[in-house]
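Weekly puzzle thread! Below is a chain. First person to post its structure in token form gets bragging rights.
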Amino acid sequence: MTDTLERTDSEQPPSRRRKRSRWRGAMFLALLVSLGLVATGVLPVQQYLEREIQVTDAEQRLAALEAENDAIGSDVDALQSDQEIERVAREQYGFVRPGEIGYVVITPEGIEPDGQEPSPVVVETSEPGFLERVWRYLTGDDLADDG
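Winning reply:
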């Protein structure tokens, strides 16, 4: 009974041996092709991982630029009002309105400014009235001194 259950390769039919050897040959060939592809770099796993890192970095830079763009956009929106334009003109460029006198405070080197912003002093110059102009004309006060 044990003779019928245990057969060696030499006792199996030749067609079954050929199928098994073909299967082994196909598996061996597939293994060789796979190893060849990995060895030659056809499967660029390293490049794929590097590209993924580059994409992540680019997405982070994009998010930072979008946040900066939003901040600049809010500044542009704020500059659409007359009050903001006047504030920027006064602070950054030293503009004054007619009748105001602008001062620039220069601190000597080595001395720290106290940090207080000076408030603008408004000096109104008014035009003399009609009677005062007539009086100046009659008395000659309206003539310019030529020195």
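Puzzle host: Confirmed. Bonus trivia for everyone else. The radius of gyration is 47 Å.
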